[in-house]
Design brief:
The complex is a heterodimer.
Chain A: H1 2-5, H2 14-28, H3 30-33, H4 37-63, H5 70-88, H6 92-117, H7 122-142, H8 144-147, E1 153-154, E2 166-170, E3 173-176, H9 177-200, H10 203-213, H11 215-221, H12 225-251, E4 253-254, H13 256-259, H14 262-275, H15 280-307, H16 314-317, H17 323-337, H18 341-349
Antiparallel strand pairs in A: 1-4, 2-3
Chain B: E1 6-15, E2 18-28, E3 32-38, H1 44-52, E4 59-64, E5 67-68, H2 74-80, E6 82-85, H3 97-104, H4 112-121, H5 123-127, H6 138-150, E7 156-160, H7 168-183, E8 187-191, H8 195-201, E9 204-209, E10 212-218, H9 219-223, H10 226-233
Parallel strand pairs in B: 3-8, 3-9, 6-7, 7-8
Antiparallel strand pairs in B: 1-2, 1-4, 4-5, 9-10
Helix pairs in contact in B: 3-6
The chains are: A mainly alpha, B alpha/beta.
Amino acid sequence: MLTNLISDDRPRSLILTGLLLGILFCLALAPFLFPGVRSLETAARICIFIVLVASYDLLLGYSGIVSFAHTMFFGLGAYGVALASVHMGRGYDALIVGTVSGAVASALLALLIGLFSLRVRAIFFAMITLAVASAVAVLVSQLSGLTGGEDGLNYSIPRELTPAFKLGSLFGVSITGKLLNYYLVFFASLALFLLLLRIVNSPFGRVLQAIRENDFRAEAIGYRVVFYRTLATCLSAAVAAIAGSLFAIWLRYVGPDTTLSFEIMLDILLMVVIGGMGTMYGAVIGATIFVLAQNYLQNLMGVASGATEGLPLIPQLLDPDRWLLWLGVLFILSVYFFPTGIVGRLRSED
Amino acid sequence: MSDPILELSGVHTDIAQYHILQGVDLVVPRGGVTMLLGRNGVGKTTTLRTIIGHWQAKSGSLRFDGADITSLPTPARARAGIGFVPEDMGIFSDLTVEENMILAAASGPLDPARLDWIFAAFPPLRTFWRSEAGNLSGGQKQMLSIARAMAEERQLYLIDEPTKGLAPAIISTMAGALRDLKKKGASILLVEQNFSVAKALGDTAAVMDDGRIVWAGQMAELAGDAALQERLMGLTMEAH
């Protein structure tokens, strides 16, 4: 049953299996293991970014397509929920309409971009996605009447998903709407991840891998490369949009910086590379490490800086304000020591 | 003579600024093996790649099984019944042998009887069925490359130098498999530099020079005429 659930795609490494089970356990019980607003915020972000990174890996790792428009699809999903909630009012129907319309709009836009540019060389596709993503980001900032511009949009979601909704307590943790919201994000992310795992392990996924390795050979067998690449782009865009919708439901706010910025695109790329391209489990490892580092490296450095106070230079180097510098160093080291990503390295050692 | 399976008339193909095929006229009879011979760089591989559609013919026409395929894209030519085994093998290294074979059967599931026949021709493929194709030896990769073309029944197989760089024992396995394929009634257009293999397998032959077919006839006629070989290819089969 379990192997069927993961589409018979086993981690193929004992350490990796342990890591994945550990992450699943921590995320499943996060509200009880790590009570507190910040830790719950981090856990929800990890869930959402696992899906976002895995959907990008369907493109980059499995299909060999470089796209810079992934945050655009993520943003479309988020704005879908926000706009539906603003215009339809608080309610589950608004969340469903927003999520579905965001996913459909993203898939259609991906189809359009794909049909125009996937026939040409990969670099042109990458450039076109960059141009379209930039144009959409500018448009969202400029159309302030509709999107709230740079300020973004605040909106209400059903009360059962907000901190105001209280159900009592369990194991000393108060059960609120925020906790229910977390489990909505957790289970939806888990379902989307398993869906992506199924896609890459299906005959369709195998054809994508064949195309990535040798597109001419795949054509010579009889596969229409443009069709498969376009379908992969649409699926990836739709899943990214649903991840964006979950993010919007979680935050109850959307803005260009939180959903459409190019920085998020770079983060996604780094997470894919750190975790390991062409493996869905790489998305889990990459997103977990990256989001944890983003949220806790600064604190860790504060502690380290305090502990080395008497030493020359080191406390200054470990100053919490320099956390981005150390984050960069960590990534350079991880790419140097794990060129095939952490998952690739762990699998090759077993 | 029955209708030819493939007919090329006045085919010209450019690769970037180079004019490689300069009016190829080639007839491949239905059934049997047609050898495409010639020195290095005369356009043999480009001819095969033009037939499968990797390179589009600039002018001229290609007819396959009576239909004009000149403007068809590669996947349509493959689905029409042309199998292609490239010189570089083109296996999918990250996928297992099994996955390579499943992908090769593009129109449906693998036929078990056909798979047994392939295993009989290439026993190592059964042994390494679940292994990543990238971990196979050179000879095993070539076996997989040909086996993939054999995974579905095709009317015409285009095979580019299948014995290149292989050990004699594996060459004999390859030749045996191609002979089997021929017995099943397939038509094969084979580019081969190993003249003993060419002589053993070929029914008809076409010799290329400077992007054109300069001679076409029975393989036995070419194999038995050292002077003709010397004139067409600059060397004799015995000398090779």
